[in-house]
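note to self — DONT lose this again. spent like an hour looking for the file last time. sequence + predicted structure for the chain T wanted, 627 res
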Amino acid sequence: MLFRSENLRVFDNGTLVGRGTLDRVGRSWTYTPTTPLTEGDHAFTVAVADAAGNLGPLSAARSFRVDTTAPRLSLSSSKASLVGAETATLTFTFSEAPGSSFSASSISVSGGSLSALQASPDPTVFTAVFTPIANSTGTALIRVAPGAFSDAAGNTNSTEASLLLPYRTTIPFITAVVITGTDSNLGVGEQIIVSVTTSEPVQVATSGGTPSFAINVGGVIKQATYLSGSGSQTLIFAYTVANGDSDLVGGITANANALTLNGGTIQDGNGNNLVASTATIDAGSNSLIVDALMPSLNTLSTSTNDGILAAGETINLIASFNKPVSATAGATLSLNSGGVATYSAGNGSRELIFSYTPVIGHASVDLATAASAALSGSILDSSGNAVSASSFNALNPDGIVAVETSIPTRSTLTYGANDGRLAVGEMITLVAQISEVVNVNGTPSLRLNSGGSALYSSGSGTNRLTFTYTPATGDTTTDLSTLSSGSLIGADLIRDAAGNAINASSFDTLNPSGVVAVDGTAPSVASIVFGNYSASLPLGAPMTLLISFSEVVKVSGIPQISLSNGGIARYTAGTGTNRLTFTYTPPATQNVDALKTAASGALSGSITDNAGNQVIASGFDNIRPHL
């Protein structure tokens, strides 16, 4: 209790700031500052002062803080923007500790979600993790509205705190898959192309492995390997057809989810991984045929033959394959005979025929293909796969087929036994020595300079052929020989064992050693006259008939001429000349004035020319001798 002469002095943080006011009973006091108290901590004490101004002891301090400033909040992010699966740590920094007035409910979030708030050792700092909406693009807004929190003095925040955070979490995906090929019918070395289209450009990284796309080729899974397209929306995968691949039904297929990364990555520009799911691809999506079963030669055989080939004779070589094939234009097989067999038939089948016709100069003891480079041209299946050319080298078909194109030739031509002259009907042989054994099928002949022909008679199966010649009436020559050209008729009838026809020209202009004349003209009667007939010739006296001929004649024996009166005139002289004398002695009582030779068959006996041609007998018939 204060006395009226005493008063209270008031101190703020030890500084006298004024005097207190006592109540009426002097038991309590108040103090009203004349100016507002400053922000901060204050410690008020009081002391009693007497009338002289002496102060008593200070009272215990009454402490408090003056706080009228609204709390503030700032937001920050660990990342300026988010892509793909990224998240950001948000930091909430307060100007003073909000205490329990701040919680997750104090925060509004759009474009994503916020994890639970995490306190830190600093009561003015809190953190939370922001996750943007998946597969989306936008800007997230994290906002704390005014009045959302307060400080210890109860002041609430007067302004909002917000943060804009751009994000892009769109995930690339596959929009289409197309399977094509370098052509519609694929063979070894050609490619099956898988084109994968994505929703946005993607980058392909292969440092960890190369992505692949599984395709079904004839029931066998093959991997088409990534080839190109990084940075675009179209990725190219390729499978190179290998020997043995086959899908003849048509249409390459793929199972669902055929894309495999194999340690590689496919991402968009923001690092989002490609969604690798794909739909099933059925055969109807393409018409590709894979035929990579390499065609191969099975056998090489020959057509029916007699085991030996002559020039001009054709044989077929039949090549059999494991699948249908076709030969390119002009395909040939070189042969050990020096010839070439040319493709002739069979394209599109399993058998191709090559035809070979030897020419003069070709030869082989057993026909075979050349030891190297036998095939010229190509033999392909429908996919363009080629038969190995080397498989045609040094092939010897079953059986022996010799090639013999040496043409048999006449070596010599000689006469058979003769007297140097040939008459009509007289036969002579001409013997031809041949360069090799020949066979004769038919009757070849030799045309001769006499006008006649010598006909083949014997020697087939040997190298010595005999021709016979019998001159006919009219044939004539001073020395028998073959014609200068075209002498041999029927050269194709004379062949060696290989079937080569004899060289016909080798028979031209042949004049065998020695002279053989051909006289094919028979002597004829030129005239018949009485040699000694006269009116004074006594009856019964011998008379002569002088007969002149067309040429010199010879008499063999004693020819006779029958006369019309029944008498006979007998040869008496003249052989070796062209005039013969016959003598006739008529009966003493017979008058010969009307005497003639017999009407027919008057001559009997042999009268010939030097060649041996018998005189024309009819020339003696019914002739009345001249006087």
